Amino acid sequence: MLRTEDLDVAVLVDPNRLVQALENLFSDAITYAGEDITVAVGLEDRCPYVADDGPGIPSDRRGEVFEKGYTTREDGSSYGLTIVRSAVEGHGWDVGVTVSDAGGARSEIVDVEEAEQRGNRLRVLAGRIAGRADRLDPAVSRLGAG
What we know:
Blueprint: E1 8-10, H1 15-32, E2 38-44, E3 47-52, H2 80-90, E4 94-99, E5 105-110, H3 112-117, E6 123-125, H4 128-131, H5 133-136, E7 142-145
Parallel strand pairs: 2-7
Antiparallel strand pairs: 1-6, 2-3, 3-5, 4-5
Helix pairs in contact: 1-2
């Protein structure tokens, strides 16, 4: 389940796959954004997002980050964002990266309303991911909900 204080959204999802996708997006944000970061997890127009205030992703690389085999680290597995894309596309949605309001990366799951119109129906309330932040990385300095 996802939660925000001021928004309840009902959308059909496979909760395990959606949570896994959001965990991977969150994990990447805290891995690549730097030492002292703020990560926001939220919903906007039914679309979940994970945004940070790190250095962001160069515009010429944004289309590649969800491709199998893409990594910027020697010890990176390259599977995290590929799993995200698979889970998201399995719902009939899409995922992409833009610039966050803070100038960092903003990964967002889009076309959620369209998928709902095709008949998908599971409930999602928007932040389970935020509640699992300590399990992902106890060194996270701050977590905001957007």
